[in-house]
Amino acid sequence: MDAGSFLLRTHLLRISPKFLARNPPSPRFVRCSSELQARYRGPKPKKDWIAEWVEKNDDAVRSLPIYVGGGSLLAVLVNRAVSGIAPVADASSSQSRADLLTLGLAVTNILAGLVWLSIRPKAISVVDPQGVQCQWINPNLQESVTSELSWVWESLSTATCCRSLVIVYNGSCVLQMGVAAECSSERGTAVEVNATKLMEGTLYQAAIKSQTQSYLANLSLYPGRSELPFLPANTQAVILQPLEENGIAVLGGDTVRGFTTSDQAWITLVAEKIEASLRRWRE
């Protein structure tokens, strides 16, 4: 250590707390002048003006082929009437063959416009799960495992579209968090997870056999949704994440195709951590 830095540290140590309280450090602000901004030569964000215009004028763009086809059809008829050509198509006439080709293209444009108007992407919206709040963790778990499972639920519910989480391990349910289906016999009570019945279902068996994550992006299209009666009736998407061969984690989402690719990869890594903690608890 050189003499300069030693003297500087000694001087700093001699400053008393009272001096710092009487003379608090004043904040400093750095302003970026227009000259520095003008000198910046780095990459700048680009705007796709065409894409923005198409998005703002979606109806007009979808109707454009109809206008083009209708105008072309009208132009062919006017040209044929003004040019003095016989109204009956003559195969030996080059003009007639060109008109027939133009009419075919015009009709094709009109049909394409009608298809564009009739087929529109369905807007995906977030739904409010219908059920009751459930915060249940197996009381026999160790405190460290309980806190870790609580952290997993808070992380998943905050960072993803997950609104329901059920973990079944070694033939018993160890966690049921989030929104659960309401029991029909007792109002305000969540439907309990029947681990035995779940493990006998095709969804559980397929996930355990493949040992890979199963993503049901649109749950309403899958008949196996009846095997998950503990989830809210309007659950939009489900992830079945096997915990090796010992159990499974069921995640219910509130949006169709709401779990992104990054979410799925992260859930796989979190499941490995959950399985390791539960395995140590069982041992």
TrEMBL record:
Query: Which biological processes are named by the entry's GO terms?
Result: cytochrome b6f complex assembly
Kindly state one GO CC term assigned in the UniProt record: chloroplast
Q: What Pfam families does UniProt report for this protein, alphabetically?
A: CCB2_CCB4 (PF11152)
* Protein name per its UniProtKB record: Protein COFACTOR ASSEMBLY OF COMPLEX C SUBUNIT B CCB4, chloroplastic
- Species the sequence originates in: Kalanchoe fedtschenkoi (Lavender scallops)
